[in-house]
Write a sequence for this structure.
């Protein structure tokens, strides 16, 4: 006997085409930002903890940018891995006008003027201690205000090299307003700020620190003195509100997968464009489980991304960008 029920939600799941018709969230190549690692060498160097991802030499970097455009990915985010001998406690290599990052950005913009280039504003690629900012004289803390000053210089140099959007990822207080003023004073009114507004202290950054060589020592100051506590959610709304008041054009929640509730709350609490960063550890754990035969690689990957968009992200920084964009075609 058929049940006498009027509601049968399964009717909308009967065939692939019906499911396509009622699908609420569709990921597009336009939603993706592709993070790329670069280093000072002609050759690429595989990153062991991030399968399929390498530190790129110049030729491969340019090929990747070309591929991004072919795949309709609108933007790349460039992360330099700096030779350890060039690092010091104040990250002075960040201020060499011809360092790896600035050369790469200007080369990309020369060849592919339409590709949106995003650069991180933080000192961690350049400091020997791996922190995003300057340490106090006694080495006991990461100083806020002096760090903001150098971040402003860094942002202006990135804009000079041609970055379309600078992305402060350091979590210092007041940096968005200062960076906005510094960019404007230098004539870069059109350079955007994508703020890592809600960036959590996260174990999921592990493989990234391998990639850029910014591992911090075991006894060092903890990044939890500036990045957010994973236990907090109201605090993220406050960080987002402050960064928007200070002039951020786009805000980021990072990591993404374990913070879908934060993505949703930010989406509901403001109308600014919202990015989510699916970080290195989120990428690597899918690869690791797939290698063990415990998860289906593509299905898990795609589910992880659609979930981030469904939660409310307008755009996603992800190391899967190129491969998923290629499969969308
Ligand atoms: C640092 C920075 C980090 C990431 C992007 N920028 C790591 C950190 O805060 O230590 C992490 C990205 C990832 O894990 O994919 N400015």
């Amino acid at each position: 006997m058929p049940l006498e029920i009027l509601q049968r939600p399964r009717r909308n799941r009967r065939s692939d085409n019906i499911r396509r018709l009622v699908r609420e969230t569709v990921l597009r190549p336009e939603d993706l930002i592709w993070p790329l690692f670069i280093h000072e060498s002609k050759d690429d160097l595989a990153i062991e903890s991030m399968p399929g991802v390498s530190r790129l030499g110049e030729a491969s970097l340019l090929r990747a940018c070309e591929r991004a455009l072919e795949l309709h990915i609108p933007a790349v985010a460039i992360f330099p891995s700096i030779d350890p001998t060039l690092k010091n406690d104040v990250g002075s290599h960040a201020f060499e006008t011809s360092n790896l990052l600035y050369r790469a950005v200007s080369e990309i913009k020369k060849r592919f003027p339409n590709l949106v280039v995003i650069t991180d504003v933080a000192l961690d690629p350049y400091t020997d201690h791996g922190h995003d900012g300057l340490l106090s004289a006694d080495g006991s803390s990461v100083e806020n205000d002096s760090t903001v000053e150098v971040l402003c210089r860094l942002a202006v140099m990135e804009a000079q090299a041609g970055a379309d959007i600078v992305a402060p990822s350091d979590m210092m207080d007041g940096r968005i307003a200062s960076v906005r003023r510094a960019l404007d004073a230098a004539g870069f009114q059109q350079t955007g700020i994508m703020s890592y507004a809600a960036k959590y202290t996260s174990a999921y950054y592990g493989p990234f620190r391998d990639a850029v060589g910014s591992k911090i020592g075991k006894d060092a100051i903890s990044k939890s003195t500036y990045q957010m506590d994973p236990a907090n959610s109201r605090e993220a709304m406050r960080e987002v509100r402050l960064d928007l008041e200070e002039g951020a054009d786009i805000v980021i929640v990072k990591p993404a997968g374990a913070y879908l509730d934060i993505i949703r709350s930010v989406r509901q609490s403001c109308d600014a464009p919202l990015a989510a960063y699916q970080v290195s550890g989120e990428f690597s754990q899918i690869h690791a489980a797939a290698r063990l035969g415990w998860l289906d690689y593509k299905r898990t990957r795609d589910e992880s991304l659609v979930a981030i968009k469904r939660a409310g992200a307008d755009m996603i920084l992800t190391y899967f960008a190129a491969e998923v964009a290629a499969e969308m075609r």
Q: What stands out?
A: The mean pLDDT is 96. The domain at 26-328 is CATH 3.20.20.70 (TIM Barrel). The chain is about 40% helix and 15% strand.
